[in-house]
Amino acid sequence: MQPTGSGWDVPEDLESAGEFRWWKIAAMRTLNLVIISHTPIWYRGHFYKGRMVPCLGDNCAMCAESVGSQLRYVFAGADTVTQRVGLLETGQSVASEIHDLALRHGQLRGLVIEIGKYSRSKNSRMELRPLDPMDGTWWAKLPIPDIAKALELTWQRANAILPEKKKDRVITKPSDYLAEAYK
After folding, report:
1. Is residue 9 situated within a structural domain?
2. Fewer CB atoms inside 10 Å of the end CB: C or N, the chain?
3. pLDDT tens digits, residue range 174-183?
């Protein structure tokens, strides 16, 4: 049950990560994004029951049960049409492509990409291509969500779907397993 409170002061652990949504790319769809992150956040995670959950290292119950892990990268981006802010999670190969494009662009922030799935399979690989740079007046003023906090909130919700023997996987500090990439 969610705790309740009154007044204007919200406990720090209940504060949000800012306005965001998770960008999901459906089969045979594309999304045009301008990346507003200065740098991605990365973590090692396990795919479990339709979502990524963080690997907790030496004491990880998922590793103990031989559930494979992979590097995941999260970027903040704004839809070029709706100008809504969201978070995009990719695997290592797509992140490497974004990194290469960012190097050619001069930086990650402001990189405009089309990202899509060009297969009917919902599990198909994301493909991307660069788009022409955009006027920076609207996206440069958008607040960048706290990606680490967004991951923490998402993972806390994910704990509810884990089987009983993995319920001890309570995520309290994303700093234990998050790091900034491409410094």
Report:
1. no
2. N
3. 444 443 332 3
72, 43 in Cβ contact below 8 A? yes
Contact assessment for residue 41 and residue 151, using Cβ atoms and an 8 Å cutoff: yes
- Which CATH number does the domain housing residue 117 bear? 2.40.50
pLDDT cut 90: percent of the chain above it: 43
User: Are the CB atoms for 111 and 43 separated by under 8 Å?
Assistant: no
**pLDDT (tens digit, 9 = 90+) per residue, 8-59?**
555 555 555 566 788 988 888 899 999 999 999 999 998 877 778 888 888 8
Q: Are strands 112-117 and 85-91 parallel, antiparallel or unpaired?
A: unpaired
69 exposure class (CB count in 10 Å sphere: 0-12, 13-18, 19+): middle
Residue 103 lies in a domain: yes
Q: Is the dihedral of CA 162, 168, 170, 175 positive or negative?
A: negative
Domain extent, residue 138, equals: 24-180
For residue 130, being part of any structural domain is answered with yes
